[in-house]
Write a structure and sequence with these properties.
Protein name: DUF4283 domain-containing protein
Number of strands: 7
CATH class of the largest domain: Alpha Beta
Strand content: 25-35%
Low-confidence stretches: 17-28
Number of domains: 2
Distance between the termini: 32 Å
Mean pLDDT: 77
Radius of gyration: 18 Å
Helix content: 25-40%
Number of helices: 5
Largest sheet: 5 strands, antiparallel
InterPro entries: At4g02000-like (IPR040256), DUF4283 (IPR025558)
CATH topology of the largest domain: Alpha-Beta Plaits
CATH architecture of the largest domain: 2-Layer Sandwich
Order of helices and strands: HHEEHEHEEHEE
Pfam families: DUF4283
Amino acid sequence: MFTNHTYKDSLLHGYADIPQEDQDIFEEEDIELLEGDVTRSVVDSLISVNFSEKVQKLTEKSFNLTVVIKLLGRQIGYTTLHNKIWKPNRDFKLMDIDNDYYLASFKENSDFLHVITEGPWTIFGHYLTV
């Protein structure tokens, strides 16, 4: 059975402490959803979508090294933000998610930890919230 970890544990340690049998699901290249992995029902006139434990683990893993960022007091474009923020050891993905918020996904735990533990970060004299 998959052991629950605190949010702080996942930020600081990633999935290093998860038993190997639970980590194996993260190594798959092709993800195949089976019947029962996603179920849909109606509860009190509202559509309810439920995901299997396997799908939940995959979702957690995909956001394991991701942060939400926003520049306070100023709008900033994607390219400018990408060029002005951190210089990680490995390339990272930056995604615009509307309302001047962005998702930054890192490939290495060390880059992720640098971003969430160092700072404060500023761009053009404005604080970058992480």
